[in-house]
Amino acid sequence: MSERKRTETRMVPYPSGSFVPERDLGAQPVLECSHLGIEFGGLKAVEDFNIVMGPTEIGGLIGPNGAGKTTIFNLLTKVYQPTHGSILLQGRDLNPLTTVEVNRLGIARTFQNIRLFTNMTVEENVRIGLHNQIPCGMFSGILRLPAYFSAEKKQHEKAMELLSIFDMTGLADVKAGSLPYGAQRRLEIVRALATAPKLLLLDEPAAGMNPHETEELMENIIRIRDQFRIAILLIEHDMKLVMGICEDICVLNFGRIIAKGTPEQIQNNPVVIEAYLGKQRSEAGAEKEEKA
User: Fold this and answer.
1) Predicted pLDDT at 99
2) Angle, in degrees to the nearest 10, between helices 211-228 and 181-193
3) Half-sphere exposure of residue 112, counting CA atoms within 13 Å on the CB side?
C-alpha cells in the first residue's frame, strides 16, 4: 500500500531550484535551510546543507554512520546553534529561538535513543505533549475549578485519539518503561504528534522493529501525513522503508550533501552507491555487469 501511494507523487521544481511534491506547489514551504552548517573545534560536522520541504512532503535523510544526519536534526531543533546558514520554518527565522520556542512554533522530533518518561503511564507521556495545546491554569488546578476538569477531559480524549493511530489505547495505563522496544518507538511518535507540529522529525523510527512492525510503521507515517497535513523528515537505515514512503531523499556523507532526488534517482546514483559500498565494491559490481 505504501509503495502505491508513494509512486502517485510527482516531484516538481520549486523557484529556488529544489523539488517539492506537486500537491505542495504554490504553498509556502514548511522548511527552508540555506547553506546550513556547524563546526566543532574547526571540524565541519555539517557544511552547506540546503533543503526545501513542502508542507505535506515526506522526506528522507540518509547516509553512512557519522555522516551528520542527527546533527542536522539537532540544528533544526536548536539543540545546536548553527555556525553559519539559516533555517526558516514557514518563512520564520529560527536563529534567535530556543529549543522550546522552536517546538512551540511547530517542529517536533523523536530521538535515536528513546527518551520517554519510563515511570509514567503511556497516556501520561502523551499528555505531557499536550500541555501547550490544552492548557490549564495553575489556580484552576490548585482549586479544582470547572476549567481544570474540562481541560483534564479534553486532554484524556485527545491522548486516546492519538494513541489510536498505533492501536495503543489499550495500553494507556501501562508504564511506558514496561513496553516492548517497538511500542516505545511508536509512543515517542505519538507524544511528538501531541505537540501539534508542522514538521515532524523522526530519527530512525524503525530501529528495533521486526518486518511486520516496520510495514505497519510505513503505512502509519503516510496516514499521519494525510490526517494531520504535516511534513515529515526521517533518518533511517532501513532502505525498504525509505524507498517505500519518501518522496524526496537527501544523501549525506562527511557532513555534505552528495545527492538529492527521488527514490529511483537515489537508487541508481553511482556516487551514493560508492558512499555506501565503497569504491572497490562499486567497481567490482560494474565489472561483473560488463562480463555478463
Assistant:
1) 96
2) 10
3) 10
Q: Domains in the chain: how many in total?
A: 2
Residues whose CB is less than 8 angstroms from the CB of residue 43 and which lie 6 or more positions away in sequence, other chains included? none
Residues 218 and 186: their CA atoms lie apart, in Å, by: 12
Instruction: Print the domain residue range for 205.
Output: 2-106+196-291
**Total-model pTM:** 0.87
Residues 30 and 159 in one domain: no
User: What is the number of H-type helices and E-type strands within the chain?
Assistant: 12, 12
Domain match, 8 and 100 both: yes
3-state secondary structure of 203: strand
With beta carbons less than 8 A apart as the criterion, state whether 168 and 76 touch: no
Q: What is the pLDDT of residues 174-233, one digit of tens each?
A: 999 999 999 999 999 999 999 999 999 999 999 988 999 999 999 999 999 999 999 999
